[in-house]
Design brief:
This protein is an all-alpha fold. The chain has 2 domains: 118 residues; 77 residues. Helix 3 crosses helix 5, helix 6 runs antiparallel to helix 7 and helix 10 packs antiparallel against helix 11. The longest helix is centred in the C-terminal third of the chain and has 35 residues. It is globular, with a radius of gyration of 21 Å. The relative contact order is 0.08. The N terminus is likely disordered. It comes from Bicosoecida sp. CB-2014. Belongs to the EFR3 family. This is HEAT repeat-containing protein 1. InterPro entries: ARM-like, ARM-type_fold, EFR3-like_ARM, EFR3_Homologs.
Length: 221
């Protein structure tokens, strides 16, 4: 027998209603902005992490939804919204580190895409997310899982230029790489030391020389 019209309408309303986790994610995005603004910060991130702590089974869906939003906004050039999503994911990683294995796959996939990209601000934010994920590891990390990040981080460390943007890329890449080296097994570290050490030392010399030069200028003044 056909369902009564009122019941059908009610079922449609329930089916079309956004799920709780998508509503919580939607509150992260500030009103009155286009997503083109740089350095957007997530709003009400505390509500997101509290919900995730209370509903840990929802973490995979939350991470997948946030990652999907970031990929969509990346295609549309809304880099501010992409940075916002990455920062929200980093907060989830930090607060829900005990459940990280259940939702890290979409997080790592998004990080890889941003590190491979050419948007400086997003590469910096993604490198920060690498640090968050590595710091959330309770045990020695499997290097194979993070090895795809290595070429991009080395590329960031070797980024040319003396302006503040280039420096931020180098410093973010160096911070992520050092976090990676602290977490991996010694055997994996030794096997990659010839790839890692030269650009790290070059960057440290470059930044150290720049700071020393700046100090000499201040002393002369």
């Amino acid at each position: 027998p056909a369902l009564p019209t009122a019941m059908t309408d009610c079922c449609l309303c329930v089916c079309l209603r956004p799920s709780h986790h998508t509503r919580v994610v939607a509150r992260l995005y500030p009103k009155g902005v286009t997503g083109l603004e740089p350095d957007l910060q997530p709003q009400s991130v505390g509500k997101l992490t509290t919900y995730a702590e209370r509903q840990p089974k929802k973490l995979p869906k939350i991470a997948e939804h946030l990652s999907a939003c970031a990929h969509r906004d990346l295609r549309r050039g809304r880099h501010g919204f992409v940075a916002l999503a990455v920062r929200a994911l980093s907060s989830l990683v930090d607060v829900c580190r005990g459940e990280l294995e259940t939702f890290e796959e979409p997080v790592l996939a998004l990080i890889r895409e941003l590190l491979r990209g050419e948007v400086t601000s997003l590469r910096v934010v993604a490198a920060g997310a690498v640090v968050a994920v590595l710091n959330a590891q309770d045990e020695v990390s499997d290097f194979d899982k993070f090895e795809p990040f290595l070429p991009q981080l080395l590329n960031m460390i070797g980024s040319p230029g003396a302006n503040s943007s280039a420096r931020s890329v180098r410093i973010a890449g160096l911070a992520a790489l050092l976090a990676l080296l602290q977490q991996v097994e010694k055997a994996a570290l030794l096997g990659n030391i010839r790839r890692v050490l030269p650009p790290v030392l070059a960057t440290l010399r470059k930044e150290g020389g720049r700071r020393a030069g700046g100090q000499r200028e201040r002393d002369r003044g």
